[in-house]
Design brief:
Blueprint (H helix, E strand, L loop, with lengths): L3 E6 L3 E7 L5 E8 L3 E3 L3 E4 L1 H19 L5 E6 L4 E4 L10 E2 L7 H6 L4 H8 L8 H11 L5 E4 H10 L3 E3 H4 L5 E2 L4 E2 L1 H6 L9 E3 L6 E3 L6 E8 H8 L8 E5 L3 E8 L10 E4 L9 E7 L3 H9 L9 H4 L8 E3 L17 E3 L7 H27 L6 E4 L6 H11 L3 E3 L5 H14 L5 H5 L6 E3 L5 H21 L4
Parallel strand pairs: 1-6, 6-15, 10-13, 16-22, 22-23
Antiparallel strand pairs: 1-2, 2-3, 4-5, 5-8, 7-9, 11-12, 14-15, 16-17, 17-19, 18-19, 20-21, 23-24
Helix pairs in contact: 8-13, 11-12
Length: 477
């Protein structure tokens, strides 16, 4: 009966859960993290704080569980990078977060190669992904050590290995998507040809052992966070989709074993590599979700994210918001985009602004859901949802209304670590199937669309016009 310690190292925090063989939670420990935001698109994290949070939450969770754990799983935040010394493990730079926009110059330099890069990787040429930030870091911060995504650095501290997983690697702009392996031509384009790159492991592979949490145990179940949640929510067949509402909002749909290239401005990645198979997923990103709610809090409009429903107006006064506080991702890919409020009058109150931000997040996700359906060739029939913001009835109902889909809320707030835990169980039990490792679940809530089709269409047309107008009046890309 495998007991798993699953650590989810994210942007806004780290959580560690200890779960039994059937996914039953035995203990939870969490630590908050606050990225540093600066002018010019700076978003950084302190690597020492990241590592300390992994070790601290893991040890506290193991102690609280009172049970010996058999394996450690690690889910990571994906496209955040740093340089570090492979001899000592010391970080040589801050961690440059996926939201950081300073690598725009690297993308501009490679603009003539954008079509090649998209065809080869399934991604768009944007600072969101790892390689532009790696190249920018090399040009501006240090040429010492190695430069990788954060997961490789954390795994080195845990096991001494130099490794990443196939799903995380597919978010880099350095991976040939069809071969699921590093591409020498791409590394050369980004000026990274001489960089040592970590070995790409399967997500259900034991990559080493660690004593960081007590006795020596294997480390397995390594995976990027959004794909971990896709797995946990049982999206194992083509056409099944989920959206995670965290710092940003991320909608992913399984496309099966075919690496479908988006014709709608979305991206395609490896979903996971497990049991000898490599399924793919198409996804769309909304850069600001919980970070927009934190922005409202910091401005004093709400006292806490938990009070979002009580602080939002029950009905709109006509105020609309495009909450592009860190730019707009799919399908616009405009890092220069900024947030916009429109439709305000003297009667507009703070609660109307709060509702407008919530509806703005839902409108972006609804836009992405339509584009995912276009790439799949058939409409989505439901949307599974996880993440801290699913506690907001206001947001979930707005999502159902604007996407015109039932929204099924995952019953645990820990979808990402539970997905990693399922992969770790596969590593220790060769006879276990992927479906059995994930298990069955029932939604804690289901939100059906309440708005009429005409009302939803009118809102989305107006909102889209505002978004497009803000891009026309903004700075050129």
């Amino acid at each position: 009966m495998t007991v798993v310690l699953a650590v989810d190292q994210g942007t806004s925090g780290t959580k560690a859960v200890v779960v039994d063989h059937d996914g039953t939670g035995l203990a939870l420990a969490e630590a908050e993290l606050r990225p540093r935001y600066g002018d010019g698109g700076v978003v950084e994290q302190d690597p020492a704080a990241l590592l300390a949070s992994v070790l601290d939450t893991g040890r506290r969770a193991v102690a609280a569980a009172g049970r010996p754990v058999d394996v450690v799983a690690l889910a990571n935040q994906g496209e955040t990078v740093l340089a570090w010394d492979p001899g000592t493990g010391a970080a040589l730079t801050p961690a440059v977060v996926w939201q950081d926009r300073r690598a725009e110059s690297e993308c501009a330099r490679l603009a003539d190669h954008a079509e090649l890069i998209a065809a080869r990787t399934g991604l768009v040429l944007d600072p969101y992904f790892s390689a532009p930030k790696m190249a920018w870091l090399r040009r501006n911060l240090t040429t010492e050590g190695v430069v990788t995504t954060v997961d490789s650095w954390l795994l080195h501290h845990l096991t001494g290995a130099f490794v990443t997983d196939a799903a995380t690697a597919s978010r880099s702009l350095l991976l040939d998507l069809d071969r699921a392996d590093w591409d020498p031509e791409l590394t050369a384009l980004f000026g990274l040809a001489d960089e040592p790159l970590p070995r790409i492991a399967a997500c259900d592979e034991i990559v080493g052992t660690t004593r960081a949490f007590g006795r020596e145990i294997p480390v397995a179940g390594i995976v990027v966070d959004q794909q971990a949640a896709l797995l946990a929510e049982g999206c194992l067949e083509a056409g099944e989709a989920k959206c995670t509402y965290g710092t940003g909002a991320f909608l992913l749909a399984n496309t099966g074993t075919e690496a479908v290239r988006s014709t709608s401005g979305l991206t395609t990645s490896v979903a996971w590599r497990a049991r000898g198979r490599t399924p793919y997923c198409v996804d769309g990103q909304v850069y600001t979700a919980a970070s927009a709610i934190r922005w409202l809090h910091d401005l004093g409009f709400i006292r806490s994210a938990g009070e979002l429903d009580s602080m939002a107006a029950p009905e709109s006064d006509g105020t609309l918001c495009v909450p592009a506080l860190a730019g707009l991702a799919a399908p616009w890919w405009r890092s220069d985009a900024t947030a916009t409020f429109t439709g305000m009058t003297l009667s507009t109150r703070p609660e109307h602004l709060v509702l407008a931000v919530v509806q703005g997040v839902a409108a972006q996700v609804a836009t992405v859901s339509d584009l995912v359906a276009a790439d799949l060739g058939s409409p989505l029939t439901r949307l599974r949802a996880d993440g801290g913001l699913t506690r907001s009835r206001t947001l979930m109902q707005a999502q159902a209304d604007l996407a015109r889909l039932p929204v099924e809320v995952y019953p645990s707030p820990h979808a990402t670590p539970l997905g990693a835990a399922a992969l770790a169980r596969l590593a220790l039990d060769p006879g276990l199937s992927l479906r059995d490792a994930v298990g069955d679940w029932k939604p804690s809530a289901v939100y059906e669309p309440e708005w009429s089709e005409d009302r939803a269409a009118e809102f989305r047309a107006t909102w889209t016009a505002v978004a497009e107008s803000s891009l026309r009046t903004g700075a050129p890309r």
